[in-house]
Automatic annotation (TrEMBL):
Comp. bias (Gly residues): 212-221
Keyword Coiled coil: no
Annotated protein name in UniProt: precorrin-2 dehydrogenase
Gene3D superfamilies, A to Z: NAD(P)-binding Rossmann-like Domain (3.40.50.720), Siroheme synthase, domain 2 (3.30.160.110)
Length: 221
């Protein structure tokens, strides 16, 4: 069965990473981009992780995980099992699942609650792609296709749309009108940017004054 796509706010959430090798490094890089509070549990780590710890960007607990220390995982919102010792990964994953702590293992399978998707990101615009662990090569292929379709300026466009959305909410317009004006504005902006011109300044000439963007009644993302 396919995995359910779910976007989670990670800012400030405790993530414990067991292991300090290449898999741990790759996943830590991703998590840091989303503000996670990271602690590594490993006797040895990659040089890049040492530097991040020295800079105070993450915490490094300089010991390998043992059975008597499993209770430390209770602090975590999410645990990454990326040890070179598979028995340690299984031990930690089983512990987490008994306590309903989200866990991801280096080798996807029964012990993992989730997988890291392949991501296309343009600012706050985030697209996750997954084949539910089935065919990673297809996931990468789809990511590359989507990257080619979504220019970098969509991140800037999203910021401008947030302001437009706030204005529309205060305008007194009904939901259907807000949706119409917002979609019209997006289409116009796309045409302008795709032609390589700067966004024009006075778009309000074609819109009622004081509005500012939604399209879903203000409850969506």
């Amino acid at each position: 069965m396919a995995d359910f796509p779910l976007f989670i706010k990670m800012d400030g959430r405790k993530v414990m990473v067991i292991g300090g090798g290449s898999v741990a490094l790759r996943k830590i890089r991703i998590l840091m981009d989303y503000g996670a509070d990271i602690r590594i549990i490993s006797g040895e780590v990659r040089d890049e992780l040492k530097m991040l710890a020295e800079a105070g960007r993450l915490e490094w607990q300089k010991e390998n995980l043992t059975k008597k220390h499993l209770s430390e995982l209770d602090e975590a919102f999410l645990v990454i099992c990326a040890s070179n010792d598979e028995t340690v990964n299984v031990m930690a994953a089983n512990y987490c699942q008994r306590r309903h702590i989200l866990v991801d293992c280096a080798k996807p399978g029964e012990n993992s609650d989730f997988v890291f998707p392949s991501v296309v990101r343009r600012g706050n615009v985030v697209i996750g792609i997954s084949t539910s662990g089935g065919v990673p090569a297809l996931t990468r292929y789809l990511r590359e296709k989507i990257e080619a379709l979504i220019p970098e300026w969509y991140g800037e466009l999203e910021i401008e749309l947030c302001q437009k959305r706030r204005e529309l909410k205060m305008s007194g317009l009904g939901q259907s009108d807000r949706k119409k004006y917002l979609r019209q504005w997006i289409a116009e902006e796309e045409k302008i940017r795709e032609k390589g011109r700067e966004p024009y300044e006075n778009r309000n000439e074609e819109e009622p004054s004081g509005h500012g963007a939604d399209g879903n009644g203000g409850g969506g993302h």
